[in-house]
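It is worth pausing here to work through a concrete case rather than discussing structure prediction in the abstract. The textbook approach is simple: state the sequence, then state the predicted structure, then interpret. We follow exactly that order.
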Amino acid sequence: MNPTKSTIAVTSSSTTGITVTLESTGIFLGILVSVSVLASVAVQIISKMNKISSSITQIEEGMKEHARNAEKVRQLERTLDLHNLEYVNRKDVIQMLLGQLDQKITHKFKRLLFYTRDLQRFLQKKGDYTIREYEENTEEE
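Step two, the predicted structure:
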């Protein structure tokens, strides 16, 4: 048996150019795979950075909305405080007016009671008028 020799690539010394061997092809393919892996890692990093950036943007918008709502709440609290103050003032004025009316009614009632008693005494002295006693006890001042 004759041993056979296999030749993968034969180059002649007279041609100029790049000589491609199995080893150089493996190195070249290794470089391409490494570059593609690095590119995919770079794409993943960039996509994660974009997600983080969009999350930060959403958080900023949320905080701006929260700040606007907080300002609205402060304005509503100020308005409520003003309304409460106005209510207290009106309540005090109404209580004062009711107190004055109560004093006037009491004063007028007492004057009417005194006039009525004077008339009763006068009628009792002048004629046969009898004074009826009521159950109500009033104090004279």
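Step three, interpretation. Residues 17 and 102 are 121 Å apart (CA to CA). The mean pLDDT is 86.
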